[in-house]
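<context>
A single protein, sequence plus fold
<sample>
Here is the protein in question:
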Amino acid sequence: MFSPALTILLNLCLAALTLAAPLANDKLTTMGNAEQMGAGGGVLGFAVLILDILVWIEVIKSTRPPSHKLLWCVLVFLLPVVGPILYYVFSDRAKHNPEAGGYEQIA
């Protein structure tokens, strides 16, 4: 299927990757410092995730052109905290609401 030279090259690359992998220490410390490594989002991280999903749903359901939808979705994906704020402040949400009446006024 592959030429012998390509097979040897792939085997050498695989061997180089296995030798370059770090060796395991005697004790595992991968879960002890999750907050220091940025993986301990907790309640605030969950709230940001829910807000991002709500923005994505609203953008996808809007009547914007596909390029504008893609731009807003990428912005919210790359800036998960600031992106929804920028969307709610700078996008013309009432104009692109798929319902004919737009958003209801708060009395």
Q: What stands out?
A: The two ends are 72 Å apart (CA to CA). The chain has four helices and no strands.
